[in-house]
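Sat 14:20. Reprocessing the chain from the morning session after the first attempt stalled halfway. Input below, unchanged.
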Amino acid sequence: MTLPDSGVFKDKLESSQFQFSPKESEDTESGGDAEEGETQNPWKTSVHQRPIQDNEVEEPVPLIRSSRVRKPNPKYANVALVEEDAKEPDTFEEAFQKLEWTKAMEEEIAALEQNQTWELVPKPEDVTPISCKWVYKIKHHPDGLIERHKARLVARGFFQQYGLDYDETFSLVAKLTTVRVLLALAASKDWKLWQMDVKNAFLHGELDRLIYMNQPMGFQSQNHPEFVCKLQKALYGLKQAPRAWYRKIDEFLTYSGYSVTPADSSLFVKANGGKLAIVLVYVDDLIKANEDEILRIRENLSVRFQMKELGQVEHFLGLEVDRTPEGIFLHQKKYSTDLLKKFGMSDCKPVSTPMEPNVKMCANEGRVLEDATMYRKLVGSLINLTLTRPDISYVVGVVSRYMQNPKKPHLEAVRRILRYVKNTLDHGIMYKKGGDVKLVGYCDADYAGDHDTRRSTTGYLFMLGYGAVSWCSKRQPTVSLSTTEAEYRAAAMAAQESTWLKQLLENLHQRTEYVIPLYCDNLSAIRLAENPVFHARTKHVEVHYHFIREKILQEEIGLESNRNGKKSESRCCGGY
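Finished this time. Tokens:
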């Protein structure tokens, strides 16, 4: 067998005269050669074409197009965003051209003038007034229809200087756990919950510092356009505005006989003759419980503030509250549906688990995303969904670790969570009516589950009666040297939460004279918590993790094994 001359073969390769294709290989094997005048089309490999003459015009090849209606692939969520029909203006000039937004701004100015929020004064020489801006928001009904157009005048509080313009700041925000505990008690005891809204809540706060502001754009005084606004009441955007409003509502409720609870500063309780009245404040939204006291507190609030009655609680902070014959069902079905629609995943294929089994996610594996904005929006939206979905708390906590520099495998994991949400749109938390309302806890930990730092993940869940009220999935701050140590740290963290929940129930005048069971699936961690003797293997464990020992000795917590079929409640704690 004679081999071709290697030098000739090398020259032909360098001159690009050889272009291999399946057709050419067949011709070579059969001994045939391609004709010298034929060339190849780069878009049609292995197809030879007749050479075009100088005076010949090449006719375009007609394209064959499919008549099939193409739908965006739900796998790629970032190419199918759904835009809202009604658009909120970005600038004052854009809003001033539309009648509905002009009317909304006039209503806002009228409310500020009626409240005597400021007075026009000449600008002091040594004062630099802060500026203000208009913020526009379209308010929607629960069914998605437009309720009204809202224009808010906001002060640019980021120009304020600490110590000069303000001292302390505080935002009156109720803990979501407190909301769930209140719903669980209302379902068990068949309480009626009513909701009210305080109109322009921050405008009722009184300032303790002199603050000057420029006149609002579009509504400058024609007689004194060079004057500035000397604020007499708090305004949205000021650093001290939330604290000033809390001071005002706290003063009013205390005068009405309510007392603030030590467990949650936004929860006010009034006990009179065995009857309990509760007011929960979340900025300007109020939830009231107790049929007899509701009418009285409603009248008192309407005298002091401008209130808006919203009826019984059905929607609160984006959470949907459904009253059923069995109790109260808390869910976020509309939010989940809108989330899938927003990111183009409405028609995706559902899956039964939020994460693939035995998946290993690392920070440095995979291709870097060109734009991480979509990933961060997805994860942020899913974090809000965990308010009623403890079953996705663990996986959302895992993907949130890669917010700074996400990779393609991380985005695929987020899309799988959306596919799981698609399969579980009707899921939520059911608080059943009647029964004994007792607190039960579950804790768990995965050993060295984070493959980047080799840290373990703590998870716990507490149920009040039949429904979950508190849960958490969080990576531990240090590396654990054994599964016992990881479970012990998780139990200690769960013990801290149970102590706060017990105090909250006591503030709500509920019975707590019982040992709170805390289930753990690690017998070594249980023995370590029950035995106060020094262990050489645990001498490196921080002192505050031994907090659970003290609670067990005081018989406030009973650490028990859940190896006999109580794994489902702690599913949010560990991996899948």
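The chain has three domains: 92-317, 329-423, 435-570.
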